[in-house]
Amino acid sequence: MRQDRMTTLLGAATLLALVTTAVLGLRTPLDVNQGSLVRLMFVHVPTAWLSYLAYGGTGLFGLLYLLTRARRWDRLAMSSAEIGVLFTVATIVGGMLWAKPTWGVYWVWDARLTTTALSLVVYGGYLLIRSLIDDPERRARVSAVIGLVGTLYVPVNYMAVEWWRGVHQTQTLKLLGDIRFDAAPIYGWVLLAATLAFTLLYLYLLRVRGILAAREEAREERELREDLAKVEVPARG
Predict the structure, then answer these.
(1) Where would I find the H helices in the chain?
(2) If DSSP codes are grouped into helix, strand and coil, which group holds residue 174?
(3) Rounded Cα distance, 62 and 109, in Å
(4) Which helix (H) or strand (E) holds 180?
(5) What is the pTM for the complete model shown?
(6) Which ranges of the chain have pLDDT less than 50?
């Protein structure tokens, strides 16, 4: 019961935060240059942040599995990877909608965009490899290593616009060195609210997917025991 109550409360808090962010985003003044298009920032940037958070979670949970061998960490790593892939796709779609009116095209092979696309290959491969390995322990070990290596994507993608200058703008919010926000302060506050809302969304999705993964694992183990019992009965007879 406690688990269900916590999930419900977290879901309600997430919904409230997302609705609040939507209202704030729609009430922000239009940008002088981009007009209402600037409001895409309140979705595009948080989805990118959520993908970073999810991939970082995959690496962290994988490391915890290697240290403890507790299967729950492997389930959370897998769940976090799925969330990361989902929101990487959302980031790419949002970026394309922003790129068309500003760059004139939906896609260019810019460093930031290219590394973002490559993350789908890395984590899509992570999920594919999981599906190809039947032994749970071996699957968890291999996945943990891939998840740890895959977290290198996060700093590389974040710094791509600084290391390889292309058409993509530099960070609106610069976190390294001279920390600054290169936009009107009102946009910064709304962006902060959106980022917090999407962080709650990550935690909610992670909890729900983790619960479902635990149930799936329990069902698989139950079915395996039943199959073994069916094999043993004729053998004894």
Answers:
(1) 2-27, 41-68, 71-103, 111-132, 136-150, 153-163, 185-236
(2) strand
(3) 31
(4) strand 180-181
(5) 0.86
(6) 1-2
